[in-house]
Amino acid sequence: MFDIERQATVRALLLDRARADLRVTGAAVTGSAARGAADRWSDVDLFFGVDDAVEMSEVVADWTAFVCAELGAVHHFDLAADGAIYRAFLLADGLEVDLGFTPAATFGSRGDGTFAVVFGFPTARRAGWTPDPQHLIGLAWHHILHARTSIERVAFWQAEHWIAALREVTLTLGCVRLGLPPSHAKGADQLPTAEKDLLQPTLVTVLDSDELSRALQAAVEALLTEVTRTDPAARDRFGPLLVELAAVPARAPAKPPGRSVDAAAGVLVGGRERRDIVLVDHDPRWADRFEHERSRIRTALGTLAVRVEHVGSTAVPGLAAKPIVDILLTVHDVEDDGSYSPALRRAGYVLRVREPGHRMLRSPDLDVHVHVWDDDHPAAGAHLAFRDRLRAEPADRDLYAATKRRLAGQDWPTMNDYAAAKTDVIRDILTRAAG
To answer: What is the distance of C-alpha 213 from the center of its chain?
Structure first.
């Protein structure tokens, strides 16, 4: 598979057959091989002129039978453009063979594609298709509107489709403006680095409302930057409207099933849960589990993770605890979910809580909780101060242990209610820690 010598062999076989086929009046190599840039990933691209006196469909059918029988094609499909038929074949070894057929009167190069004549007499180069920027801008506002609608309707795959289509429109506008090949993003990699960098944040990493909304806003920003270069007046006419369309509210009218808002205005992803409060004796393996999770988080986030600390009762030797390892992760801006949350979710953590200034993700087995705060948030410092106090002062550790055991024996609607009942004793211990 993907052998450049195999490409050359197939190309030579097809050209020999073209020379022997009296109905073929001209042949040319196109694509990367025509400009001497073929590599092991290239297709075999050939373009044939067909005698005007014969039925072109019969020629295409005969060549198809040959490619299937002699080269082992397993599938093919057609594209028609400007009087020509392009038949793309997939060979059994993964090589793609693209054969174009056109009447002899129109045999010649088209657009800005490369065209190396093997035999025959080509016509003058014909102008290629160039998209109309105004049509592209129209597609853009259409895609923005439908992306917003899809997010509101919780049609997340459809929303991703429209955001990707909007990104393609922006790339195409840039290629048209700079005279680069506009179709199929052929010129996209030649765009200035700054323009490509502006489109990086438009890539969707996780299919949820927050991430799709973030990507849509980034895509609108990139589009309007390009529209300013292409048609500044158009940006003035409808730029503010497009920005407004992309601004999906944090509390959308339609929410995914199972998503509810708690009394503190934080979002519980998956709704309220009732879980038994079970305390067990301290397990030294909790420290090892934390080190394992810290390594995963550091690998996922790199320098985005400012601090990764073991907190909560499992971080205090000798203290009974629920068998859940709590981790404090601090970042520079917890509200910039797109900078860290997708990477954590790719690492296997699942978003559970999203509230102002705080996020909590957890392991699929629910035995690791990762609390994310700004590095300078008072809550981050309080978690560390409480842990350090319990480690250093046996009396406070024993007080806290007794409080937990007493409360664990009661019936609580949710784990959050159990945690809230410990507020007074935690505050008193922190007061003593502050001295």
So the answer is: 13
Task: Give me the amino acid identity at 367.
Answer: D
32, 38 contact by CB (below 8 A): yes
What is the β-pairing status of strands 368-374 and 325-331?
Answer: parallel
- Write down the pLDDT at residue 56: 94
CB-based contacts of 242, cutoff 8 Å, min separation 6: 140, 141, 144, 220, 223, 224
Quickly list H helices, 351-414. Answer: 378-392, 394-408
Could you tell me the strand order of the sheet in which 368-374 lies?
Answer: 259-261, 267-269, 350-355, 358-362, 368-374, 325-331, 307-311
User: Rounded distance, CA 305 to CA 298, Å?
Assistant: 7
- Cα(316)–Cα(392) distance, rounded to whole angstroms? 9
Q: Are 130 and 113 in contact (CB under 8 A)?
A: no
Cα atoms in the 13 Å half-sphere on the side-chain side of 236: 3
Q: Token pair of 172, please?
A: 């195409």
The string of pLDDT tens digits covering residues 195-221 is 888 898 899 988 888 889 889 988 998
Domains of the chain listed by start with CATH number: 4-119 (3.30.460.10), 133-246 (1.20.120.330), 285-434 (3.30.460.10)
This prediction has a pTM of 0.55
Closest residue by Cα to residue 297 from 205, 398, 372, 384:
372
Which pairing describes strands 44-50 and 24-30: parallel, antiparallel, or unpaired? antiparallel
Quote the pLDDT of residue 264: 37
